[in-house]
Amino acid sequence: MFVIIETEDGLTIEPQPAHMTAEDVAAQHGALLADAGPYDTFEDANDALLNLEQDDFDEAEAEGRL
Fold first, then answer.
1. What is the pTM assigned to this prediction?
2. What pLDDT sits at residue 64?
């Protein structure tokens, strides 16, 4: 299983061990939980990450920040 977290460097995908919650994974990396998923495959998580990045871009563009 995989989750998406947000670090100082941006969004990233991290594996979620069975004994940890998505919040635990984020805390372990000193990050915020961006999308708890969980996603069964890295590819599914990557698709979700790309959608999150596109949504952020669209929002910034609509608000005139770009």
1. 0.83
2. 75
Tokens for 1, please give them: 């299983």
- CA pair distance 17, 2, nearest whole angstrom: 8
The string of pLDDT tens digits covering residues 2-45 is: 999 999 999 999 999 999 999 999 999 999 999 999 999 999 99
Report the C-alpha gap between 18 and 49 in whole angstroms: 21
Distance CA 27, CA 30 (A): 5
What token pair was written down for 19?
């004994």
CA distance 44 to 4: 11
Which whole-number Å values give the CA distances from 61 to 20, 50, 65, in the listed order?
A: 36, 16, 6
pLDDT at 58 over 70: no
Helix, strand, coil distribution of the chain in percent, nearest 5: 40, 30, 25
